[in-house]
Structures are given as structure tokens and as C-alpha cells.
Design a protein that fits this description.
Structural class: alpha+beta
Order of helices and strands: HEEEHEHEHEEEEH
Largest sheet: 7 strands, mixed
Radius of gyration: 16 Å
Low-confidence stretches: 1-35
Oligomer: single chain
Strand order of the largest sheet: 2-1-5-4-3-8-9
Distance between the termini: 19 Å
Mean pLDDT: 82
Shape: globular
Length: about 200
């Protein structure tokens, strides 16, 4: 059963609906685009770009935006990170109630230092997470996301691209996924949705 806070958030947000495009980057459909049918806490354990362990319970009490991507992504990830940076700017003082996570699906190439510098170009408040493949896969699965490496020339394995879920997951203070913002959604719409969620949580 949902808590009173979760119920209020879900009720307040039910009137906010947006057109939802398909899963981006060569995919055909995105799973779990809206809230969970049976909301549950999304569990994970990763490492930030300073070497600190980050677990889902560390962010309990905050709304969390989660995005899976990689530094070599040519356009989808930079666009989404720019959107997240715009949202953080528009939220202003409300950013104390929000944590933003960028989870790399290419930790072998995306080193901690380079990932920290990369994210800093967009907004220094975006937390970069990385971890061994098993931990990365666990977190990807926990959020019903996915990714897949593509190597066009077997003789050049270092030249690859990665298809990945392009939506931004929105998690409530209890760790439950309540919304996915599709790639390309305007920052103002995302901001309005988050502000409504924050107001509902304060009731």
C-alpha cells in the first residue's frame, strides 16, 4: 500500500499528461514509461566520481532524476544533460529537494575524472555514477531501462556506439518511480511536473 505522501503525489500529478514518444536511439518502445503499476523502491549501489559509494537509501527523502547514458554519445545524452541543467536552473531554491544522477553504461571508457569534468560542463550538481558491469546492469534493470553496445567492425572493437534508454526517470522521496520524461520534452514542462510533485509532498 502506498504511503499518504506517495498517494498525494500520485493524485496531484495524475492531471499532468504529456505526449510520450518512443524509446530513442534506434529502439522501438520504452518499458514502464509512466508510474509503476505496483510502486516499489528501486535499489542500487554505485560509485560517484569522487570514489564514494552511493546507495538508493542515501537519497531517501529527495526526489531523484535518473538518466542512463555515456560520454561518447553524440547527441542524445548532451541534449538530455542540457535539459537537466535547464530544469535545475528553473527550479531555483527547490533544487535542495532534488538529486540528479547520470549513470554511465560505459564505465570502462568513462573514467571517474573524465565523467566529473564532462558533467561539470552542464551543471556541477549532476552526480555521475559508475560501477562494474554487474552493478551497472543491476541498476539499469531496476529502472526498467536498457542499453546495447554495437560494434560495426569486429577488427575495430574500440569503435562502437551504444543504444540506450533516453528518457529521464523521476523517483519520489520513497524511492519509487513515478514518471519518465521522454527525450525531447521541454524543460519548462518537466519543471512544472517536478514543482507539482514537491508541493504535493509538502502537504
Amino acid at each position: 500500500m502506498q504511503t499518504r505522501r506517495a498517494f498525494l503525489i500520485t493524485t496531484a500529478l495524475s492531471g499532468l499528461s504529456f505526449a510520450l514518444p518512443a524509446w530513442a536511439q534506434n529502439a522501438t518502445s520504452e518499458p514502464d514509461m509512466l508510474a509503476d503499476a505496483e510502486p516499489h523502491r528501486r535499489r542500487y549501489l554505485m560509485e560517484d566520481t569522487y570514489g564514494n559509494i552511493v546507495k538508493d537509501e542515501d537519497l531517501q527523502g529527495k526526489f531523484v532524476l535518473v538518466y542512463f547514458g555515456y560520454m561518447g554519445c553524440p547527441d542524445v545524452c548532451p541534449t538530455s544533460l542540457s535539459t537537466l541543467a535547464d530544469v535545475m536552473e528553473k527550479l531555483g531554491e527547490n533544487t535542495n529537494d532534488i538529486a540528479v544522477l547520470f549513470v554511465t553504461v560505459d564505465p570502462d571508457r568513462d573514467t571517474a575524472r573524465e565523467l566529473r569534468e564532462y558533467l561539470g560542463f552542464f551543471d556541477k550538481r549532476i552526480i555521475g555514477l559508475r560501477g562494474p558491469k554487474a552493478y551497472t546492469d543491476h541498476m539499469v534493470k531496476a529502472f526498467n531501462a536498457r542499453y546495447e553496445f554495437h560494434i560495426e567492425d569486429p577488427e575495430k572493437p574500440e569503435e562502437y556506439s551504444v543504444d540506450h534508454t533516453a528518457s529521464i526517470a523521476f523517483v519520489d522521496p520513497g524511492g519509487r518511480l513515478i514518471k519518465r520524461f521522454p527525450h525531447g520534452m521541454h524543460p519548462e514542462k518537466i519543471t512544472a511536473y517536478i514543482q507539482a510533485a514537491i508541493r504535493a509532498a509538502e502537504q
